[in-house]
Amino acid sequence: MRLVQECEADFARMMAKEPHGFRSPVILAASMDLAVVYLKNYALDKADALYTHMEPFCLSRGLPWDVKWFQDCATLRCKQNRQAEAAPLLEEVAKRTPPHEATLRNLGTVYNQLRQFDKAKVYFEAAAELLGRTDKEDLWNIGLVHKNKKEYDKAAPMLEQALAQWIEDDPGDDVTLAKLYDS
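Structure tokens predicted for Tetratricopeptide repeat protein (183 residues):
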């Protein structure tokens, strides 16, 4: 928590010196950085308050400010277990940026959590198509969709293949391997 307090103090000093407040790009960037500090330290109420205050300033500036705000707020909503609110934020990211596998996977993950499995699968498959291959992460994600739909005959081989690829590529990733074994 000491790091968070130091970041807050630095931000307060910056704000005291800047007469334009959040209209200043330096302050806006610093506020986005502070909000991420809050996110990473699970100070979610503080992050929420800061994102709420930043919203009009980020959205009025356009790219890249708006996209960063939408993405970070979607992350916040997921950490708050408010996936239904995260989905439209991620949809905005997808509308405002060129297709990117991370955005597509994030959308798939949110819709999977919302039990909208067919929609999730569309996004996971779009991520794989964008990459031109189905990698271990895509196998895992699509396999989870099938598992959640109780299509175990489709899920099992995909999850087994994802696990085998993860063991081969990154055998030291104990957290991911544990999640795959659990799947």
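Residues 117-183 form one domain.
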